[in-house]
Design a protein that fits this description.
This protein has 373 residues and is of the alpha/beta class. The chain has 11 helices and 16 strands. The chain is 29% helix and 21% strand. The structure holds adenosine-5'-triphosphate, Myo inositol 3,4,5,6 tetrakisphosphate and magnesium ion (MG) (2 copies). Its cofactor is Mg(2+). Keywords: ATP-binding, Kinase, Magnesium, Metal-binding, Nucleotide-binding, Transferase.
């Protein structure tokens, strides 16, 4: 009986019913998990369902097959029932890639969506792309590799051409420490870096450690840090940051809490090194908080659109997000502090529809190209 299910469960159950389909001979997950039928109570709960599943009079005949190679965590957060249902209506289906079988023997795929670490996978996907140029690989492994290094990640950003825009973009002054962090203090001062400095592991390798950040208040404390790392100037920004999600041509921005400003008094008094809390990944919503509007105001949309467009070209990526902060006291002076490949899109509003449109547009563009040949 539907009445025994909470509204969230009901929604999932209905979605799963819609999901019972096969694709390219591979049975999709979620089949046979549906309570059958419904009653009056069901109707009542239906009102709380955030979106309506309607029986469509016709099914899209054109099929677009998206092969995916994702970690179990990413699969769980990204491949949610709502996404699969909306995709199916547009003739898009998701097929898991079997890592134990040669990739070329699987599919055929129109799109390969992947986020896996390691040289072995990089070689597999590079080789596959060479042999299957008709397949869109999201995204090219070489381009992803660039943003796994916190130095190359931000290279070229300050030179982007955003001249006509209502904001300006910078990256914090930073330097790389490959070894001997004790002697890095002299180099940091020579390079003009001002304390406090944020110490970030140079390589992002998917481990929790690569997201373990430290704040070093004085030159002596640098000796306590483990290279390889980047030392980056801390930029006061009023405790709010902006995550700009990019999916092809679409962008969405959300606010997150961040670290509070560091006063001159604190800079003078405090020494030592402190581990950062992962404030910005917290689920707590900034939107209902009582924030200073000059801090919380979203960056101008045309500015973000121009920035995302330039970054797509510079990075050669279509799926990423940017962490941005507004320099405290400024109107629209922004710093990019981080870029993430295939981030937590489930935290992007309406991500399911955005992805369906993205895949659909891609399929149409391909079809058009084929017809023009
Ligand atoms: N230069 C900086 N100045 C001020 N705050 C910073 C700076 N760099 C990082 N932060 C703060 O630390 C947080 C984590 O830094 P960063 O985004 O570089 O790490 P990360 O581990 O790559 O995060 P993510 O989970 O987004 O991948 C930022 O969201 C921001 O709150
Ligand atoms: O954990 P989530 O799904 O939220 O996604 C996070 C993602 O982890 P995952 O890819 O393993 O899922 C991280 O990837 P790695 O740097 O460790 O490769 C990084 O991109 C974070 O920035 C994402 O958080 P967001 O910035 O979007 O909030
Ligand atoms: Mg970040
Ligand atoms: Mg990051």
């Amino acid at each position: 009986m539907f009445g025994t299910l909470a509204s969230g469960e009901l929604e999932t159950a209905r979605l799963r019913r819609d999901l019972g389909f096969s694709c390219g001979g591979i049975r999709m997950e979620g089949e046979n998990m549906v309570p059958q039928g419904g009653d009056g109570e069901g109707e009542q709960v239906n009102e709380t369902v955030p979106f309506q599943i309607q029986q469509h009079p016709f099914e899209q005949t054109q099929k677009l097959v998206v092969g995916y190679a994702l970690t179990p965590k990413k699969k769980k957060s990204f491949l949610q029932p709502k996404l699969e249902v909306l995709a199916r209506r547009k003739g898009i289906c998701f097929v898991p890639i079997d890592l134990n079988r040669p990739l070329s023997e699987q599919g055929p795929f129109d799109i390969v969506l992947h986020k896996l670490l390691g040289k072995e996978w990089q070689d597999v996907i590079e080789d596959y792309q060479k042999k299957h140029q008709e397949v869109t690989v999201l995204d090219p492994p070489g381009a992803i590799q660039r943003i796994h290094n916190r130095q190359s990640m931000l290279q070229g950003l300050a030179d982007l051409n955003l001249s006509d825009c209502s904001g300006s973009i910078f990256v914090p002054k930073q330097m790389v420490v490959l070894k001997d962090s004790a002697s890095s203090a002299d180099r940091a001062i020579e390079a003009g870096l001002k304390f406090p400095l944020v110490a970030k592991p140079l390589w992002i390798d998917g481990t929790a450690k690569s997201h373990q950040l430290f704040l070093a208040y004085d030159r002596r404390s640098l000796a306590e840090l483990d290279p390889p790392l980047v030392l980056q100037e801390f930029v006061n920004h009023g405790g709010v940051m902006f995550k700009v999600f990019v999916v092809g041509d679409t962008i969405k921005v959300v606010r997150r809490f961040s670290l509070p400003n560091i006063s001159n008094c604190e800079k003078a008094k405090v020494d030592g090194v402190f581990q950062f809390p992962r404030v910005s990944s917290a689920a707590a919503s900034v939107d209902n908080a009582d924030l200073d509007p000059s801090v919380a105001e979203l960056p101008p949309k045309p500015f973000l659109e121009a920035l995302a467009k330039e970054l797509r070209i510079l990075l050669g990526l279509r799926l990423f997000n940017i962490d941005m902060i507004r320099e405290h006291g400024s109107k629209n002076v922004f710093y990019v502090i981080d870029i993430n490949y295939f981030p937590g899109y489930a935290k992007m509003p309406d991500y399911e529809q955005v992805f369906v449109d993205f895949f659909h547009d891609m399929a149409q563009a391909k079809q058009k190209k084929r017809h023009c040949k």
